[in-house]
Amino acid sequence: MHIQKITFDRVFSVHPKAWKNGQWTEFGFKADGLRVHDARVEGHPDVLEGVPLALALPRPDAWRKIYGWANLQTGEVIVLERHVGDIVVGIVLLVAFNLAQLPYVLSWAAVKPDVRWFLAVGALALNGYVLWGVFRSFRQFLAHKRLTAFVDAGR
């Protein structure tokens, strides 16, 4: 994760959006001679001009995935809240589901081929979905932690 300092000189086309898998805000900005039309931050924070910010990005200048930011004037950290509890619940669900499937896996040869296919696809889909949710929650937790440390180091 990369922390990048920036001050938006001009902000335009701010569009808060929401869908089944979360909420985000799309916007464009001008800053330090840079013009970006497709920035995207998770959540619905106020996108302000003239305020120095520290952004949490997956890599430098990856404006489509801003995980959160810190207002360097006030020290406020703004990250879409996902808690450690979400990570723990996801891992518990993953372990419980895989333990429930263990009898079928151990007697794999005795299971009918059409049922095997159904179990395998279901296991892959559910495991993938839960792992994706755990990853997203961990990413938000890490962004909050890194931004808080960045703000604290600057004070």
Describe this structure in words.
By secondary structure, the chain is of the alpha+beta class. It has a domain at 2-80. 42% of the residues lie in helices and 31% in strands. The chain has 2 helices and 7 strands, in the order βββββββαα. The strands form 2 sheets. The chain has a 4-stranded antiparallel β-sheet, with helices on one face. A 3-stranded antiparallel β-sheet has the order 2-3-4, with no helix packed on it. Helix 1 (84-106) runs antiparallel to helix 2 (113-154). The radius of gyration is 21 Å and the shape is elongated. The two termini are 21 Å apart. 18% of the residues are buried. The mean pLDDT is 85.
Key structural traits:
155 residues, alpha+beta, four-stranded antiparallel β-sheet, three-stranded antiparallel β-sheet, 7 strands
